[in-house]
Write a structure and sequence with these properties.
By secondary structure, this protein is an all-alpha fold. The protein has one domain. Helix content is 64%, strand content 0%. Helix 1 packs antiparallel against helix 2 and helix 4 packs across helix 5. The longest helix is centred in the N-terminal third of the chain and has 17 residues.
């Protein structure tokens, strides 16, 4: 995965999170789901390319760290 592809996915997840007031949750989920693919990428650069505040790099790292402990469900619980 290129940083451009990752940024596009991250931007989409961020927008979905903004609509439901769950921006940080969506960023954590992105970090969990794509931890292996984004390992080694500059997280501030990734956030910038996604058009989200650079401060969310911390939330990305939290998701990446959680990836080894959690497993995503196929769909969100409502």
């Amino acid at each position: 995965m290129t940083i451009e592809e990752a940024a596009r996915i991250l931007a989409d997840m961020y927008r979905k999170g903004a609509a439901s007031n769950e921006k940080a949750v969506q960023i954590h989920l992105f970090g969990i789901k794509y931890a292996e693919q984004i390992e080694g990428m500059s997280l501030p650069d990734l956030a910038g390319r996604a058009g989200i505040p650079e401060t969310y790099k911390t939330e990305l790292r939290k998701g990446m760290n959680l990836a080894k402990y959690v497993q995503l469900k196929s769909s969100p619980v409502k």
